TrEMBL record:
Residues 13-238 form the ABC transporter domain. This is ATP-binding cassette domain-containing protein. SMART domains: AAA (SM00382). Belongs to the ABC transporter superfamily.
Length: 251
């Protein structure tokens, strides 16, 4: 990390009592956790557990009904240059389809006072240099995913939040993503990645936050969780069994 605001204080995400309902659906209920710098933290839960809603509240896309989320001690809306403190990818295809990858990143850089040369750096980091002039709307899901990551890293942020980052990637892409996540943490960043697959998260994360039906079930480590049952998968199922949205019925 080279720039400004996040280098002095350790970059962290802190959620305190986050709560959000949509109509009668309680999506997130009184969820508190901390994501520390220098770690990859896996945010795990079955479908519909509230992972995306929590992430949206952290980056100011949804307003909590109660509670608060802060990034480096401030709410998202208080950050002077948000992209330079927190990079997020919540939806892979969050760009104008008619624009090239370079133009998309260039306009994000310009509006966040980020030097234009950083665009080429993130294009190279994400392996998109050779397709940078192509219209992003023609990108495959894997390429769109890489463009989303490039945008998230544009401001060299101390905090990185990625919703289902390996979704849609081929095996080579998955391996690349694992390496990238590890190197981001090694550089001292706080990295939060969501998934509903414990096996995937265990490949990169050491810390785990587990939620189900909107409630925090555990903040633990991969090592602790796997020690609590015969296998990591078994431990995860035991934690989430009572809160899975779709439970198979025994015949
Ligand atoms: N905009 C919305 N309007 C109404 N209900 C919503 C909205 N967003 C989420 N929900 C509901 O809130 C609950 C939590 O959804 P959320 O998308 O946060 O879960 P998730 O853990 O990210 O799930 P998945 O792994 O399936 O993406 C679900 O019951 C969902 O249907």
């Amino acid at each position: 990390m080279t720039n400004g605001d996040s280098t002095g204080a350790a970059a962290t995400i802190v959620a305190r009592g986050l709560t959000k309902s949509y109509g009668r659906t309680v999506a997130v209920q009184n969820v508190s956790f901390t994501v520390r710098p220098g770690t990859v933290t896996g945010f795990l839960g079955p479908n519909g557990a509230g992972k995306s809603t929590t992430m949206r509240m952290i980056i100011g896309l949804d307003r909590p009904d109660a509670g608060q989320a802060t990034i480096n001690g401030k709410s998202y809306h208080e950050l002077r240059w948000p992209l330079r403190e927190v990079g997020a990818m919540l939806e892979a295809k969050a760009f104008h389809p008619g624009r090239s990858a370079r133009a998309h990143l260039g306009s994000l850089a310009a509006s966040n006072d980020i030097p234009a040369q950083r665009v080429d750096e993130v294009l190279a980091m994400t392996g998109l240099t050779s397709v940078a002039s192509r219209r992003a709307g023609k990108f495959s899901l894997g390429m769109a995913q890489r463009l989303g990551i490039a945008a998230a890293l544009l401001g060299d942020p101390g905090v990185v939040i990625l919703d289902e980052p390996v979704n849609g990637l081929d095996p080579e892409g998955i391996r690349w993503m694992r390496g990238l996540l590890r190197s981001l943490a090694e550089q001292g960043r706080a990295v939060l990645i969501s998934s509903h697959l414990i096996s995937e998260v265990a490949m990169t994360a050491e810390e785990l936050i587990v939620i189900g039906r909107g409630q925090l079930l555990a903040q633990t480590t991969v090592a602790e969780l796997s020690a609590s049952a015969g296998s990591l998968e078994e431990a995860f199922f035991q934690l989430t069994d009572s809160v899975s949205e779709y439970q198979g019925r025994a015949a």
